[in-house]
Amino acid sequence: MYIGSTRIDNQTPSQSTAFSAPAAPVTAPVLSADALKKAVTLNRVYARTIGWMPYMRQIAARLGITAKNPDIWSFAQALANWQARNMMKRPDGILGPEWHDLLTRNR
Amino acid sequence: MYIGYSDGLGQTAAAATISSADSKLVKRVTPAALCGVSRSGGNLNVRGWPNITHVVIHTLIGSAATTIEHWHSGQDCFPPHYVINKNGEITQMVAEYYYAQHAGTANTYSIGIEHEGGCTNTPACFSESLYQASAALVRDICERQKIPKNREHIIGHDEVPGTDHGDPGGYWDWDYYMALLQWDGRSASQKPQRIVLDYNSLFTFPLTANWKEGTRKWVKWGPGHEQSYAAKYYYATADPAAEDDDAVEYNGTITESGRWTLSAWWPVFMNSNPAAHINVATNNRDPAQRSFSAVYDQRKSGLMARRTVALPSTHTWMAVHTLTLNADDGVRIQVSRRSSERGQVIADAFRLLKT
């Protein structure tokens, strides 16, 4: 092993759960590392407390996620893209009560 | 493809340590400085078939581009023969018939490959493109040099006699890597497949609020037995009266039909549960492939232990069960909080591997 000066970020998500990018969004907001972390943390809670966990596969499909075993980080990014396409003021990658809207809206 | 250098040092090194790539998979040739190869007097020592018998896998902390430059300029004198970056691009630095100074006692009989983004403290470093490119290169080397594609001849730096280097360590997925090596590289239906379900997976959830999140302990060389696979994992205090759905659930979808081996990984602690229940269900049409349950003592490090020269006991995957499944079959794994024994139940990671 050669040890250089650059450290690897321990929190990088696993690469083994491949993600295929959703259809090209109108705008493609890239969440900052902090925003992404916040979105993932809250989505884990909201999935259960708000109740969209049973619909997760449908929601992922709606977001354009085609990977069979996607990761939760890609989900937050895809959600932020969907929020931007649907003119939400501040796309944050967090799925709250609008999850039902996401499943039924045309865009 | 050969890419020369305009500076005098590069041209001198180019002429001496390598003139052209040994493999068609090499994207660029960047010669290592003369100090990085074995010499007698003014001449480079040469070896050839059948004297090359092993391939040594290394991992690189730091960027490939910077490190290649260090080896090229002579700022560092321990280059491998090949460097693979995170995107799977292969650079050759020393011709295979020269002795690169990459692995101490193994230099005389081995070819060394460094992998960018590799590290020993998280599996996230090892990208899919890195595994694929490395396996293709080693397949090519083994075929040209007639090296058997097995673990006796394809070894980690941490397995070289006398070494104190811990790379690539336990997070390097040897099972998957060796399956890729043994694949012919062509037939798509035979290609090994790997699915890892962990904290980062979209369809992994604790089904109740009784589960807390733990964070992986930092380790330099490893992992040791207290290191989880994912950066975070779930744990809960066992309860003999816990409900059926008081579990962490992992949901996966099978990508190709075939025999899939399910393996588990969890960190081992003294206060872990000696009777943790793992329940697996699939929606395969064959009833024999639909369910499986097992109870594990999560305090036993021996279930997931691997020994290398540099790492007396490193953590690794533990095979749980093998199932014959079809593409698009769903697999649901639950780690239950219900246990008759005291201690914390840990839910970390599962791997499905088709070889």
Shape of chain B: elongated
- Detail the poorly predicted runs of chain A: 3-27
Helix content of chain B: 10-25%
Instruction: Give the assembly state of these chains.
Output: heterodimer
Kindly provide the radius of gyration of chain B, computed on alpha-carbon positions and rounded to a whole number of angstroms: 23 Å
Cα(first) to Cα(last) distance of chain A is: 50 Å
- Give the number of helices of chain B: 4
Instruction: Find the count of extended strands of chain A (DSSP E, 2+ residues).
Output: 1
Largest sheet of chain B, in brief, is: 6 strands, mixed
The portion of residues forming beta strands of chain A comes to under 5%
- The level of helicity of chain A is 40-55%
Low-pLDDT stretches of chain B are 1-14
Order of the strands making up the biggest sheet of chain B: 1-6-5-7-4-8
Q: Looking at this structure, what is the CATH superfamily of the largest domain in chain B?
A: Peptidoglycan recognition protein-like
Strand content of chain B: 25-35%
Which labels suit this protein?
A: 107 residues, mainly alpha, B: 355 residues, Lysozyme-like, Jelly Rolls
Chart the SSEs and their pairings.
The complex is a heterodimer of chains A (107) and B (355).
Chain A: E1 2-3, H1 33-49, H2 56-62, H3 72-85, H4 99-104
Helix pairs in contact in A: 1-3
Chain B: H1 8-17, E1 28-29, E2 39-40, E3 43-44, E4 54-61, H2 64-73, E5 82-84, E6 90-92, E7 110-116, H3 128-145, E8 154-156, H4 174-182, E9 193-197, E10 204-206, E11 212-215, E12 232-237, E13 247-253, E14 258-265, E15 276-282, E16 291-296, E17 305-306, E18 314-315, E19 318-325, E20 330-336, E21 344-347, E22 349-354
Parallel strand pairs in B: 1-6, 4-7, 4-8, 5-7
Antiparallel strand pairs in B: 2-3, 5-6, 9-22, 10-13, 11-12, 12-21, 13-20, 14-19, 14-22, 15-16, 15-20, 17-18
Structure explained in plain terms:
The complex is a heterodimer of chains A (107) and B (355). Chain A has 107 residues and is mostly helical. Chain A has a domain at 33-104. Chain A is 41% helix and 2% strand. Chain A contains four helices and one strand. Chain A is globular and about 25 Å long. Mean pLDDT of chain A is 74; it is low at 3-27. Chain B is an alpha+beta fold. Chain B folds into two domains: 8-188, 3-Layer(aba) Sandwich (Lysozyme-like); 193-354, Jelly Rolls, CATH 2.60.120. Chain B is 13% helix and 30% strand. Chain B contains four helices and 22 strands. Chain B has helices spanning 8-17, 64-73, 128-145, 174-182; strands at residues 28-29, 39-40, 43-44, 54-61, 82-84, 90-92, 110-116, 154-156, 193-197, 204-206, 212-215, 232-237, 247-253, 258-265, 276-282, 291-296, 305-306, 314-315, 318-325, 330-336, 344-347, 349-354. The A-B interface holds A 1-8, 10-18, 44, 47-48, 53, 56-57, 60, 65, 68-75 and B 58-63, 66-67, 70, 76, 78, 114, 117-128, 157, 165-167, 194-198, 200-207, 209, 216, 218, 230-231, 252-255, 328. Strand 1 (2-3) of chain A pairs parallel with strand 4 of chain B, so a sheet runs across the interface.
